[in-house]
């Protein structure tokens, strides 16, 4: 059977994460097992949650591979694995096999090469590929049909995320890495060129070879000379970072077909390694399967009492129980994860652990009415009419004497608001966990139930199906819907009873009650408001891109001397390498030529047709990723795009935006700025943008107590020019743009732990010169070094750092034995309090803004978007200026009275017909 969805797990990447994430564990015979245990948990979760029909875990076979023949020092400076980890490598392979999952490795190749090859083969068969990893080296593989999944951050890595990381699309990542090098893998690159500069150069010249051929055109003398002197080193680096996708695999793709778990074999492995909790889970599952069908089991069969509520009398009884208790756990079931598109299907409630109900409101006839008990006319399940049920629930859900508890309750607030219900007061178990243990683990229900309750919740796929066969919840039979939905409310209540005291015990209740919890309704209102998007602007851009794509296609056909499908790798390969006779073609096992970017890019400088093919691909991707996709995201009813904000997506407290991600629209390129012109205000209104100016540098000056920087901010000086004057001894009236740029890089880099080598590459100077700049910086601003040392020392002792408002960001690897892991955690320790404090400040501002906008003079002004340090509003034209001043006042005073920051917070405001004009 041909693969439809291939799931490739980067096993080598998970080994080290597991080892450093868990405390030491040993079997009775003394064998260390912490990495084995962590790895087993991760792999189990991944293979249970995926709908893939082909799965494999890929490992590195050995440190040395064919790249060491190209460059002997490749990865040569990496330290040996920790002693406690070495005996676990073989056990981890055994663990993979115990989960009945193929364990793949090959001498002479890295895991990444095998992943690249399997991904290519699968795409050529028409399959979708998911690479489970966050490794930047794998980002070059992202393309149509291939995405990455970072399970630690619970996010998909697609073209947008690659651009965010490298400044270029996936097809140009190899060239950027070749220039910037990689100190982790000892890839040399070109001295003085970092990722940002490399991206700019590749965008300007198109590819590495063209850049090297035209190096004489570079204006900056040092950069120009480095490119000339180290051209061959860049080419070698390109060979090192480019993944090999034509490995002669020992295990064919078809052998990766997903297999059922062999529980007997798995339990034997778990017992041998003394993993009692995992053993108990699978033994319990086997016992349950022997006694009853799986769908009839509940998370705690002895205690759970789950009931369907199908008449108004029973519903009123639950409402009275909630009033009597003074609290109730609430969860909604809907047809979609996006609140703008979602329809309410049912509500579940729980008043005590093990007791919960499900109130079906909009389930449909599945053609099997016997599953529903008594049925209404036409076979639909017996259920209270939705409007009548809402009328009974509404007084209780709005009752200030009844606390409503939810897991990610922002979603439920938005759903119920569509039916005229304003839910309050609230508690959120996800946010309680995030406040108490941010950075320690995930905060989704599954993770929290496993961690705090020892329960494994029912998966959505178990009741609604997987992949193409998955149905929306309104088509789920009521017996399955009851168990799934009631369990959600039950577990939410149990978690609340565990987590609320934990937050109180850690003295973090103020943070929760003054920042996280009150932000929930604010964000829910912003998500419901959405932002108006002009589809005509997007379509015009799509048409422009389409015209340019069409023109390129015509030119390609003319150069080829024949018409063919440029988007067909098979036809393109035949035209380029057979008909035109271009050198450098490589055939795959299927007999077709590979036309991946790593094959075409080296040919682009010599062959005009190849460059035009690459340009055609770039424009096609830009159109599909942004202009076409955003049109599809416009809500047909409102004409607006409604994003969703993740409150626990970043451990520093920063918000992230999804479905669609409006925080990642490119602004550095001309096309990116054009896309922002499509975000518009309604007729008679304008968009307002208010943005904190250099907030993180201002916080550094305050938190580190740097008097010189404080004075510069207080005097309203150009902070980068002021730094340059201090470090380089250049008077302000003699400042040049180049010197200011170097000072800017130092300002942003040093406080985040940048090394002399990294700074040198970024500003185009030698490592020794960069070191001298850093030494001078610390000499002029000694408080910075003290702040960094004290922060790292605090983190080593406590395991976390704090923002100025008391948010704790846990960094478990701060005491890791591995120097790379430890160094990264140290840089995080320096950065996190600053970024987290900035996130807290804008959150405090967002909470204070709605009461200001409620004033009569602010009628019609609405907060729409948050993009890190920027807030976007919609306002009537005649109120825009007044709104800017009122909102600016709130934002600039957002830290007080809790923290009086010793430098002014400055907010820059603008307005315009579009987001592009306002910013």
UniProtKB/TrEMBL annotation:
GO molecular-function term, one example from the UniProt record: DNA-directed DNA polymerase activity
Family annotation (SUPFAM superfamilies): 5' to 3' exonuclease, C-terminal subdomain, DNA/RNA polymerases, PIN domain-like, Ribonuclease H-like
DNA-directed DNA polymerase family A palm domain boundaries: 672-879
Its EC number(s): 2.7.7.7
Presence of the UniProt keyword DNA damage in the record: yes
Keywords: DNA damage, DNA repair, DNA replication, DNA-binding, DNA-directed DNA polymerase, Exonuclease, Hydrolase, Nuclease, Nucleotidyltransferase, Transferase
Domain 3'-5' exonuclease: 306-504
Record bears the keyword Acetylation: no
Catalytic activity: DNA(n) + a 2'-deoxyribonucleoside 5'-triphosphate = DNA(n+1) + diphosphate
Domain 5'-3' exonuclease: 4-259
Superkingdom of source: Bacteria
GO biological process: DNA-templated DNA replication; double-strand break repair
Family: Belongs to the DNA polymerase type-A family.
Primary role: In addition to polymerase activity, this DNA polymerase exhibits 3'-5' and 5'-3' exonuclease activity.
Subunit note: Single-chain monomer with multiple functions.
The name this protein goes by in its record: DNA polymerase I
Lineage of producing organism: Bacteria, Pseudomonadati, Pseudomonadota, Alphaproteobacteria, Rhodospirillales
Gene behind the chain: polA
